[in-house]
Amino acid sequence: VLQDYTHEFHKTKANFLAIRERENLLGSVRKDIESYKSGSGVNNRRTELFLKEHEHLRNSDRLIEETISIAMATKENMTSQRGMLKSIQSKMNTLANRFPAVNSLIQRVNLRKRRDSLILGGVIGVCTILLLLYAFH
């Protein structure tokens, strides 16, 4: 009888341990599934995606601000260069008015410059025409 009870006790104890291990194992899985279904997993993923998107937007905003600051600096430099060129031009005009020889020299330089630009334009035009004729024949 003792042997039967001992055997029954060990059998019941083994069943109890197996059920407890199964419950521990499945309980953690069930908790994970319930937390995922309740939305904490989905919310974490969404939050992570929103944070990444926010970081991308901040980087884009920073790059746009840098580009705008570069454009503003370029505009300021161009404005200052324009002012310098205007002052140089006014000084050259006053010199040309004071000294007629300088004025005639400047006119000759301008005539030669125009003539050279016309010659260069003609050469480029002829070369382009010859190149097109060669390409289509």
Automatic annotation (TrEMBL):
- UniProt keywords, alphabetically: Golgi apparatus, Membrane, Protein transport, Transmembrane, Transmembrane helix, Transport
Determine if Transport is one of this entry's keywords.
yes
Segments traversing the membrane: 118-136
**Any one annotated GO CC term:** cis-Golgi network
Coiled-coil-forming residues are none
Q: Name the InterPro entries on file.
A: Golgi_SNAP_su1, GOSR2/Membrin/Bos1
Q: Does the keyword Membrane apply?
A: yes
Record localization: Golgi apparatus membrane
> How does this protein lie in the membrane?
Single-pass type IV membrane protein
**Entry's Gene Ontology BP terms:** endoplasmic reticulum to Golgi vesicle-mediated transport; inter-Golgi cisterna vesicle-mediated transport; protein transport; vesicle fusion
Question: Which Pfam families does the record match to this protein?
Answer: V-SNARE_C
Gene Ontology molecular function: SNAP receptor activity
- Family of this protein: Belongs to the GOSR1 family.
Relate the protein's function as given in its record: Involved in transport from the ER to the Golgi apparatus as well as in intra-Golgi transport. It belongs to a super-family of proteins called t-SNAREs or soluble NSF (N-ethylmaleimide-sensitive factor) attachment protein receptor. May play a protective role against hydrogen peroxide induced cytotoxicity under glutathione depleted conditions in neuronal cells by regulating the intracellular ROS levels via inhibition of p38 MAPK (MAPK11, MAPK12, MAPK13 and MAPK14). Participates in docking and fusion stage of ER to cis-Golgi transport.
Q: Can you say what this protein is called?
A: Golgi SNAP receptor complex member 1
Organism of provenance: Neodrepanis coruscans
